[in-house]
Write a structure and sequence with these properties.
14 helices
Length: 309
């Protein structure tokens, strides 16, 4: 952690300062983060356009076994796209962690350095996926609230994985231990922050998606009015203009999660190491006390006693 002592996100945070730090870091590093995110988004968007399930073709199929066979054809391409997304996530996380504290680091070094963490990261994601599936199923037994709680809890664990691994080493056992320890220390605070961040991300993504869909509103509404036109969805999804616009919009939100993940980790470590006073972002203003609202009692012979004046 000594190497990261001067990292701009390494401090004890409150929910307000965490969002302020996220915005300040995002703003100061916007150009590089956005350019790389556009490249990421273009690659994944273009690849995804070729593995979109043909909804109209599936709807016309009445044999369930044949339908499953057609869906199975998409599993391998979708798995490769998921692996690609995980690799891009690791690269971006490494850049956000190391670029502010290492003058020699750049996005190209992060591409190479992040490969060291990719396999352990993949193993932990697989383990987390199985655990998350079980947690969500159990959560459904407690109705929707339980499922939502399970999803946010799994997301909280996920956000700690890469920062722990990249700062403390790629040992899987140590990573699991540290992730659970950091996530469960100040658990409700972490849970609340992640909940607020997810809501913020959903709102921003919804707005951006709506803006991207404006040029294709006719095709979209045609699909809603006439479900038989569902094949048109895959049509405009392969449109180069749609791919470019989606990539430009998605790139605005891609860096947010690794930045927030870094904030969560450093906040947890700062509290664990009791270095709060050195990293408090600002001094709190003196609050008015109850006794300040009343006149101070003075003795009869006190020179400031107003009754003597």
């Amino acid at each position: 952690m000594e190497n990261f002592r001067d990292h701009p996100l390494n401090r004890v945070h409150t929910i307000d300062t965490s969002m302020n730090s996220l915005w300040e870091f995002y703003r100061k590093n916007f150009i590089m983060l956005y350019i790389f995110s556009v490249v990421i988004s273009l690659v994944t968007q273009y690849a995804s356009s070729f593995v979109m399930i043909d909804i109209a073709n599936l709807q016309s199929e009445t044999d369930p076994m044949v339908m499953l066979e057609k869906i199975r054809e998409y599993l391998l391409p979708m798995a490769l796209i998921s692996l690609m997304n995980l690799l891009f996530t690791a690269i971006l996380q490494h850049y956000i962690l190391y670029n502010p504290v290492d003058n020699e680091n750049n996005i190209f070094r992060s591409v190479i350095k992040s490969l060291r963490y990719f396999i352990p990261f993949l193993v932990l994601i697989i383990l987390l996926s199985f655990t998350g599936a079980i947690a969500i199923i159990l959560g459904l037994l407690a109705l929707v609230v339980g499922a939502v709680f399970a999803v946010i809890y799994i997301m909280t664990l996920y956000l700690f994985i890469l920062p722990v691994m990249m700062v403390e080493g790629p040992d899987i056992g140590n990573t699991i231990s540290s992730v659970f320890k950091l996530a469960h220390r100040n658990f409700w605070s972490n849970f609340g922050w992640v909940s607020a961040f997810i809501i913020l991300l959903i709102v921003i993504s919804f707005i951006l998606s709506g803006l991207v869909m404006v040029p294709f509103a006719g095709s979209f509404f045609k699909t809603i009015v006439n479900p038989e036109e569902a094949s048109s969805v895959s049509g405009f999804a392969k449109n180069p203009l749609f791919i470019i616009l989606s990539a430009l919009a998605n790139a605005l939100t891609i860096p947010l999660m690794p930045i927030f993940s870094t904030i969560l980790y450093f906040n947890g470590k700062a509290r664990e190491n009791k270095i709060g006073q050195d990293y408090l972002p600002e001094k709190q203003e003196e609050r008015v006390k109850v006794e300040d609202l009343y006149a101070k009692p003075y003795s009869d012979d006190h020179p400031d006693n107003p009754e003597k004046k």
